[in-house]
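Inverse folding, one chain.
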C-alpha cells in the first residue's frame, strides 16, 4: 500500500503492488473500460498504440480525439472507477466511495485522488508503475494542468 496525505490533513491508501490487485478491482475496471470501449478506442486511435501511450500522449490524444460532451462524461466515469479500484482505505469518516459517489466529493479531494489513482492504474492492466516523483502533465487532466502532488505513473510492463 502507498499512503498519501489528503488536502484536509487526513490520509488515503492506494494499491502499489501487483498482489494487492483483487479480482473485484479488476472486474470493476474492465466493466467501465468495456462499457466505454468506443471512447477508449477513439482516444487510442488519436494517439499511439495503447501499450506505447505515455501520460503526455494520453492528454494529447484526448485533445485530438475531439470527444463529445457525452464521451467526456464517460471518460470522467472511467477516472472515477480507477479511483474506486485503486483506493483501499482512508481516514475520512464516511466509507470509501462507490463510482457513483465520487462525484459528490469535494473537487480538491477528487483532484488528489485522481492523480494518485492514475499512478496506481497500471497495476489494473498488469503493468508495474513507477512511483518516483515528477512534475509532468497529469494524464487525467486534458487541460494540461499539473498534478497537485506532482505525480504521474510511468508504466513498466513485465
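Residues assigned per position:
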Amino acid at each position: 500500500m502507498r499512503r498519501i496525505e489528503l488536502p484536509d490533513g487526513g490520509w488515503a491508501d492506494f494499491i502499489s503492488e501487483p498482489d494487492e490487485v483483487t479480482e473485484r478491482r479488476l472486474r470493476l475496471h474492465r466493466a467501465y473500460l468495456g462499457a466505454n470501449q468506443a471512447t477508449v478506442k477513439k482516444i487510442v486511435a488519436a494517439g499511439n498504440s495503447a501499450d506505447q501511450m505515455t501520460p503526455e500522449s494520453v492528454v494529447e490524444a484526448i485533445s485530438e480525439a475531439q470527444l463529445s460532451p457525452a464521451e467526456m462524461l464517460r471518460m470522467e466515469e472511467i477516472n472515477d472507477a480507477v479511483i474506486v479500484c485503486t483506493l483501499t482505505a482512508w481516514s475520512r469518516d464516511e466509507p470509501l466511495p462507490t463510482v457513483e459517489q465520487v462525484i459528490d466529493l469535494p473537487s480538491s479531494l477528487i483532484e488528489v485522488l485522481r492523480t494518485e489513482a492514475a499512478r496506481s492504474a497500471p497495476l489494473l492492466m498488469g503493468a508495474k508503475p513507477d512511483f518516483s516523483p515528477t512534475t509532468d502533465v497529469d494524464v487525467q487532466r486534458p487541460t494540461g494542468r499539473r498534478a497537485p502532488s506532482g505525480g504521474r505513473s510511468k508504466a513498466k510492463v513485465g
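The helical segments are 23-35, 37-46, 55-65, 69-86, 99-102, 107-120. The chain has one domain: 2-157.
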